[in-house]
Protein 1
Amino acid sequence: MRQRRLKAGIAVGAVAALVLSACASERVEDAEDLGYDPDATLIIGTAGEVTSLDPIYTADGESIRVARMIYDTLLDIRPGTTEVVPGLATSWDSDPSGTSWTFELRDDVTFHDGEPFNAEAVCANFERYHNLEGAAQSPPYYWRLLSGGFANNEPEAGLGEPNYQSCEATDEFTAVIDLAEPTSRFPRLLSLHVFGMHSPAALEEYNASDLGPWGDVQWPEYSTDHPTGTGPFRFVEWDQATQEVRLERNDDYWGETPTVAEVIFRAIPDETQRVESLLTGEIHGFDLPAPAHWDTLEAEGMNLLVRDTPVNLLYVAFTQEGNEALQDLRVRRAIAHALNREGLVNALMPEGAEVATQFTPPSLPGWADDVITYEYDPDLARDLLAEAGYDEDNPLELTFLWPTEVTRPYMPSPQDMIELFAPDLEAVGIEVEPISMVWGTEFIPAVIAEGEGDLHFLGWTGDYPDAFNFIGTWFASANAEFGFDNPELFEKMAQADQTVEEAERIALYEELNREIMEFLPGVPISHMPNAIVLAPNVEGVVQGPLANERFDQARILTE
Amino acid sequence: MAMESANRPSPPGPLGQRKAEKIDRLAELAATPPDERGGSVVQESFRRLRRSPMAIVGGAIIAVFVILAIIGPYIAPYHPIATIAIDQVRPGVIPGPSAEHWFGVDQLGRDVYSRILVGARHSLLVGVVATLIGFTAGAIIGGVAGAAYGLGGRVGRAIDSVLMRFMDMLLALPTLLLAASMAAILRPSLQAVMIAVGVAVVPIFARLLRGSMIAQAQRDYVLAAQALGVRRRKIVMAHVFPNSLAPVIVQATLTLAVAIIDAAALSFLGLGNPDTAVPEWGVMLAQAQGQIFTRPTLAVYPAVAIIIVALGFTLLGEAMREALDPKLRR
């Protein structure tokens, strides 16, 4: 008996020694280790798939998120800020007129296919944008915004004269871009990864610019299988069956070497399922968790990175074209007074969200503190409607379009939003017909291109820190979404856009914001903080106010 | 019987076949001759029904549901779309049940108890209208096919064959899938749900009525009428058709349960009333899903409501089927 006990004691001791030595050896390895696994794969859940891997053809967050990994831009945004910093260009300057811009480029960059990056490559990229033809003129929203047109506009595209004139490589690493008119958009819009620099050789080899004749877009091989940039990650594959985009580390990256070996973007359209996937460890993180899930995610120990100075706006637009009632300022004011915006912000949005007073977020210069405001006042709304000739016997009837299958940084849950606002409007005697449409395929074309419906929800996340990126998006020219013609306003907007002097331009923005709120083309609703959530073992991701995180410095910690 | 089944091909696939067999069995029941007491099938069945506890429970549930659906909006403590407690809700914070709000409030501060009550009317309306659509269209198609078959002739058989093979094709599809496809084609609306669910159950009624009419055609009274020289057309219209309706009414009760569940499913999938503020159990369930981490009980109320009502109709329907079926009589 005693002997047996002794044996057992020896055995236990031996096991303990083994375990301890194993621990010790692990610890030694850890000390040599970096504290994170450089061979790890980072898996990010996304709400949807990319539309094209060639970002010039995209304007949505899901696509640009992937482009940010593969491509670099001439100008960049410092992580965690809205500050514009050098990217592939080390410096840039314009002549006094603001129309001729000289970019000095980095001399140590090569594309993923081994081609050198230089001034000729930059000019090849700009010339390509400028000379896009046929169906390829339809998707590049941001090029049309930047330049206004192409070298040969398709007659059906309804575009104007291009502002872009030419690009010249004055020496190997100096490119000069000439514009017709100065614009506040240039060059800051170039920090958006839509304008990532492509390898000219790859563009040509895989027919990147050939989307077929005007009409239906046919994606070329480049857009689906061969994106070639200079970024921290190389493209591996886009598996449309599993809805995954797979990227691998670019070991020759000119910047800081990426700290993960692979990145996978996996589309998981359902929010609840994204939360579950994160909690079970299937993914390492996802962007824009619903505010209702923030507490749960934090309680589960997840890393919730809140972007707490939101550069975004949610609004209700009035589509005036073809609706006499909405052309009446009294009706527009009545609607603004009828909506309980504060109720919506409190019920649906996280702490730090605020009711918007104008179409520019307060964090941007150009925001005016003395615009006319429209308090929640149903009685006043009813009076204004009565003045405009609408009452119980002759009620105002409006359709209200709202999107499904989407969360945006400014818009937590469209269905809850419509369920709050439709009754608000009905309470003052407006008969509302809510119409739901799928975000990407129905809603956006209907409200942006066709100007359907009377009211709709939409919003904007800033691309670069300038008020024109907000008010200029909607009110610089007549468009289908708002459906009004106000030449005086458009004229002033153009004047502000072309003002090179910063202080002068900002004063003009403030004046414009005051005028816009008097004219009331829509009701600005809110600015909302939003978040990105990561597993507790992921570090190195810095959330930015423009929601433009790169995951190249993400570190997956070893236990 | 053997001759019968020769005229009765089953729709493709095991699902359609099972459905078809169930319908055909019900169709034959009405043709069973009256038992030794000499009462009619319907009288006899009703007598049995009154003694069945299943029927009593089912009937009681339906009675309560119908009463609530009618008076619900008047006894609801709050307006169902009034966001009365909006001050108390925040993202991730929803107050639970209290003396003021028996079932608590939802993510927009609306009273859940009031919404469930008012939602009952909606569910009843959709269920009844959808069943009526299916019943009417099914009765017309089944009646035409049955009459054509009964009146005989090569043309009659051909009409019957074409109509029934088309119905069998529809029957082979799961009802919910058929309804969802229909609803997706129509623009999402309350009417679309009613039509979609109604159309999805048409083949059930059609096959049932046709089968029932053919079964009746073998009965003695038809033979007697023929012997008396009554015209075939009159026999089919005035005697066979009305006598074939009993199993169809049983089926309508069972279909109401399916219609209510399917209508809730369509709303849950976002194919229902686009004004989602209007309380509807399926929509409430879908919205509760978004709050599953915050207040999971929000999903329980509409789910339990749907289950209880569907259970009521199923119990009553099954009890009726049992009462009609001589093989199941105790």
Protein 2
Amino acid sequence: MSRIQKTLAALKADSRQALIPFITAGDPRPGITVELMHALVKGGSDVIELGVPFSDPMADGPVIQRASERALAHDVSLRDVLGMVAEFRKTDAETPVVLMGYANPVEAMGYETFAQAAVAAGVDGVLTVDLPPEEAEDCAATFKRHGIDPIFLLAPTTPVSRIQAVERLASGYVYYVSLKGVTGAATLDVASVAAKLAELQSYLSVPVGVGFGIRDPESARAVAAVADAVVIGSRLVQEVEAGEAGLAARLTEFLASVRAAMDTARR
Amino acid sequence: MNDKLRYNQPDARGHFGQHGGIYVAETLMSALDELRVEYEKAINDPAFMAEYRYELAHYVGRPSPVYHAKRWSELLGGAQIYLKREDLNHTGAHKVNNTIGQALLARRMGKKRVIAETGAGQHGVASATVAARYGLECVVYMGAEDVARQSPNVYRMKLLGATVVPVTSGSKTLKDAMNEAMRDWVTNVDSTYYIIGTCAGPHPYPTLVRDFQCVIGEEAKVQMQDMIGRQPDAVIACVGGGSNAIGIFHPYVEVPGVRLIGVEAGGHGVETGQHAAPLTTNAKIGVLHGQRSYLMQDANGQIVETHSVSAGLDYPGVGPEHSHLKDIGRAEYVAINDDEALKAFHDLCRYEGIIPALESSHALAHAAKIAPTMSKDQVLLVNLSGRGDKDIPTIAKLDGIQL
């Protein structure tokens, strides 16, 4: 069992849902990322999604685009991100870390080389936004061989045949994109999410996390009532964008309020 | 005799050899699947194809002529240069061949809103034109840098009723406009048809754009036979994403003895790194904008900023079919620098009375480079993909003239 699988299974046994925050590695500067990761854990996070900066983040809204630009201004590379994870692992052997990004930086390193380096650094899962299951067979196999969970996206537009294609390749969890749009969009419709999740869960054996449009304790609680995990990204990146003063404490405090709200949603 | 090349690309999932494919976020996968299915139905529907051909004949003005640039050929003192006059199409470039096809497809699919990305503005104008023609709402994404250097086209799009959105992220050029169009599409996928302007992007776009542009090469084959009784020794076209080139190359792929030469933007010179020539410089293969293909990138897989005097060639990637034609050795790819393209631009103005687009001037410059090394009975066919009216402010500025 992978670190992700163990973490999510333990939460499920306790009738709780996972809180999965996202920040972009190297934003606003490389030196602060590990400290922020620990702050996320302190706030009650169960899994960390760490964004790998990319020059052309097509699936992201302006907030996460700017985070990528700030990190790239410091030339933060995929190898640098792996270095940050390795540093984090020195003092946290428990919290799973998922890298989230686009295919090209991984392609450039090579899937095998990347998988070896990622495992050595302590990475647990990889979500490549622009690598749908049709093009991901080889890379998913490579990741699994190294014990990395390949995380896939599902969307409101995903038909049953594709849910089954994802089920064949996915492990760890799948990430349900709650709305048609880019990250940071503000129109979460909990009722339609709940309806689609019921359909997804009838085909999937892995837990389902929901992201896009979750920005406060209230929306997190609503999603936690129907999903296995709640992903929060743009809202946290906005906190980073607001400045470094007291940043770690602000992230911890915000996530603690989300955690508390989610735990009242216990099923 | 069986020296005919057999060519049957792409495969069912849009792969041209090791290139192409579908690399997009999940939300768009079903839209692309719907497009693929509808496109296959449309091209097998005689009524659809008849309307497409009718529009090309009566709205665009096809067939575009082939013109023997006799005076320029004589001055160069070698091979005879023939020009396929896509600049004479309605809207002034080859782009409209594709936008008509895709707008008819959008209408067939019940989409009321179309979006497009544009570099030089030619595809934006061609999209705005057909949107007006078929009564569709049109939004065009254009890099802020290109908005500044192609101002006549920006105004043309507005006159045609389109909304032009300047894109200020990244390098503020074509690739960033494409990112923004993708973001719009993912948000409005139910109501919106995305008209991609070049033979790039996720499957089925590279195939669909190629098929709509192949009218260029199909006409040229008939016209060359009529004019000189044979096919040219080489066909030359500029390559940014590569739609005009694939349109004239593809019908020639299985014709032996015809060299296919794609001309990329050498910018300040490929040795300076400031260019847009991924094929010429053997860039690494990468994934961007929904496809795998040769791609200009740094050692960490970040896409690098490109440079070309011509906005339409200022793109770090290239359509997957060109990458495949390079791999199998059927087409060759070279680069022409800004200054060489500008000289060809001026020469065609002065010796033939034709103002070519800066993009097409790259193809002209390569013809001018190799013609003198060839004999007078050899023939080069250059795809004059667009007219240069839109470039007049750029040229004037380079010449130090205030208009």
